[in-house]
Write a structure and sequence with these properties.
Elements lengths: L4 H20 L4 H23 L4 H28 L2 H10 L3 E6 L2 E6 L1 H20 L1 H20 L1 H11 L5 H39 L5 H11 L8 H13 L3 H26 L9 H15 L3 H31 L11 H40 L5 H7 L4
Antiparallel strand pairs: 1-2
Helix pairs in contact: 2-3, 2-6, 2-8, 3-6, 3-9, 4-5, 8-9, 8-11, 8-13, 10-11, 12-13
């Protein structure tokens, strides 16, 4: 359907205002994106509370508190590991010899690592100072995060209604399909990755304590964080610790931490936790997830850990929609009525054509009816079970509208 001049003007006005808004709010765009994705994941908590008769505002506030608590539990150990252990890390770097002899094939080579050590010390100090100076900004963004999550959970039907009104009816099935892809991907990224990271932290703190490392807690925190890096994960930390042990002259310790760490920290949590939560994953190959993670992190920073894989997942979903659309169109052409160019059998051809046309019409009508019914049921199910569809139940649960 062609757009009217008024609609074209409104679309252009929307594009201009959206671009200006994006430019002005660029510094908080990551916080807004993070808030939306967290609200997506927390919505089932809010919906379940409303179904149990809890008023809408209290349910939204409770779900927001749950999300904020989880974020604090995730971030606080990282800040502690970096800030509180700053002196120990710097002292360790200062004790590392500036020249490292390497012997191979009967020849000894001396490698000067003083420049690398100096850069590492500067980086650790800058991180600690940056955390202290950025405290006011972090506090403001934290308030914005909590406010946005609460607002999204309080009125989820607004976003749903806007999407349905803006998109023509024949495209609603596509919108609902992309919505399900976003939901499943975010569940896989947040719930699955967080559970695996917590399991890795729990195992790592025992392993590093048993191996005699004083900074067992900090190393376990880093292991849990590295679990968000696909394919490599905590193996990077194990390899770094092994290198440090070799540099310190403790070859047996390097072999021990490599063997035990790779098995219990790098492999065991993945092997046990991920299969238990496999239903939350979208089935995206690890290679595509790695591309999304790497590209998103390099392009957008920390928020790219979520944005990169989510973009790849949406791209895969759109490709599948295009492929299925082409297949269905091709099947329509392949099953079209055949023309019998036989002048001597016009009556039988007409009869056969009418019969096949009636049969095909009835079959396609039934199929179309079933498809429309399935789509309606699916849309209703999504509307009843996903963000933005329980306005009626909310109104019944809380009479303040």
């Amino acid at each position: 359907m062609a757009l009217t001049n008024r609609q074209r003007v409104l679309v252009g006005l929307f594009a201009v205002i959206a671009a200006v808004t994006l430019a002005i709010l660029w510094r908080v765009l990551q916080t807004v994106f993070f808030s939306i994705t967290v609200a997506y994941v927390l919505y089932p908590v809010r919906r379940e509370l409303v179904r149990r008769g809890i008023p809408r505002r209290i349910a939204a506030g409770t779900a927001t508190v749950v999300g904020f608590t989880l974020v604090v539990l995730l971030v606080a150990p990282v800040v502690y590991a970096i800030y509180a252990r700053q002196a120990e890390i710097v002292a360790f770097l200062e004790n590392v010899p500036e020249t490292q002899p390497i012997t191979a094939f009967g020849m000894t080579y001396v490698v000067d690592v003083s420049a690398l050590l100096s850069r590492a010390q500067t980086a650790v100090s800058d991180i600690a100072v940056g955390l202290a100076t950025a405290a006011p900004v972090v506090a403001l963004k934290t308030f914005l995060f909590v406010f946005l999550v609460y607002a999204l959970l309080l009125r989820p039907e607004n976003a749903h209604g806007a999407a349905v009104r803006l998109v023509p009816g024949e495209y609603h099935e596509i919108i609902f399909g992309l919505h399900r892809q976003v939901r499943d991907t975010l569940y896989a990224l947040y719930v699955l990755q967080a559970a695996t990271a917590f399991g890795t932290f729990s195992v790592a703190i025992v392993v590093f304590w048993a191996l005699g490392y004083e900074a067992a807690f900090s190393l376990a925190v880093l292991s849990g964080i590295l679990q968000f890096i696909p394919i490599l994960g905590p193996s990077l930390l194990i390899a770094a610790i092994a290198v440090v042990e070799v540099v310190a002259g403790n070859v047996s310790g390097a072999i021990l931490v490599t063997a035990v760490g790779l098995v219990f920290v790098g492999f065991l949590p993945d092997a046990i936790i991920r299969p238990q939560l496999a239903s939350l994953t979208t089935g995206m190959p690890a290679s595509l997830y790695f591309v999304g993670f790497t590209g998103g992190t390099l392009s957008l920073g920390v928020i790219g850990v979520i944005a990169g894989p989510l973009t790849i997942a949406l791209l895969v979903a759109v490709v599948e929609l295009v492929t299925s659309e082409r297949v269905s169109v091709q099947q329509t052409f392949d099953t079209g009525p055949a023309v019998i160019p036989d002048a001597t059998g016009e009556a039988s051809a007409d009869a056969a054509g009418e019969a096949s046309a009636d049969a095909a019409g009835e079959a396609s009508a039934d199929a179309a009816g079933e498809s429309v019914a399935d789509t309606a049921r699916e849309a209703s199910a999504d509307a009843a079970g996903e963000p933005g569809a329980d306005a009626a139940s909310d109104a019944d649960a809380d009479g303040d509208g």
